[in-house]
Amino acid sequence: xxxxxxxxxxxxxxxxxxxxxxxxxxxxxxxxxxxxxxxxxxxxxxxxxxxxxxxxxxxxxxxxxxxxxxxxxxxxxxxxxxxxxxxxxxxxxxxxxxxxxxxxxxxxxxxxxxxxxxxxxxxxxxxxxxxxxxxxxxxxxxxxxxxxxx
Length: 150
Hints:
Blueprint: E1 9-12, H1 20-32, E2 36-39, E3 43-47, E4 50-53, E5 58-60, H2 75-78, E6 89-91, E7 110-112, H3 125-148
Parallel strand pairs: 1-2, 6-7
Antiparallel strand pairs: 3-4, 4-5
């Protein structure tokens, strides 16, 4: 990911990855990208000025990427975002929420609304990786457009 001049942090835990080798690779790659790992902080809310951790700590951000694991979190529905019966965010072909277009959802948290089938993505690491890359490209493209208007 090439995001010059952009800072980012990962809040949460790498504990879901039981394999120590996987954790080491994730830590190494995050450090290479200049990212910060904020461990043992669970994000419970997202506001315009940042994410709120369970501890009450504000994690300031302009963009929030919420990685939720193998199931869609209920927070999307609770926040008033259009979701399916499994709490997956209803998205268009660009992975943007149909009810809140500034929100991008990917992987197991997204349910694309396809004109022909409307079928959700098959839950898999490959699906998450491919749609995650596309979602990141969407956010980076939007960031560059916003930066160019300043």
